[in-house]
Amino acid sequence: MAYVVTDACTKDFVCVAECATAAIAPTAADPAAGTVSQVFINPDECIDCGNCAEICAQNAIFPGDDLPADKAHFAEKNRAYFN
Ligand code: SF4
Predict the structure, then answer these.
(1) What is the pLDDT of residues 41-68, one digit of tens each?
(2) Domains of the chain and any CATH numbers
């Protein structure tokens, strides 16, 4: 299951640059960046490498299978961003 960004995200965009499959959006250059409170991971593009979670200073990113119970709804929130 793909990695998931939660509301601890502060939009520093460090993970966006780290992702080899460009699964994380919006980028800092995307006009949408100003309209969202966090970035999101496209579950269809994520290859589960874990690089984004490792580099996140906020610990905002979790493996989908390991989301804290109170953050479970963020899996659908991440997917919905790309629909
Ligand atoms: S786990 Fe890897 S592939 Fe998936 S969003 Fe993070 S950096 Fe990208």
Answers:
(1) 999 999 999 999 999 999 999 999 999 9
(2) 3-81 (3.30.70.20)
Element at 62 (helix H, strand E): strand 61-63
Among 15, 52, 66, the mutation site with the greatest number of ligand 1 atoms within 8 A of its Cβ is 52
- The span from the CA of 55 to the CA of 72, in Å, is 21
44 lines ligand 1 (CB under 6 A): no
d(CA 58, CA 9): 6
Give the pTM.
0.96
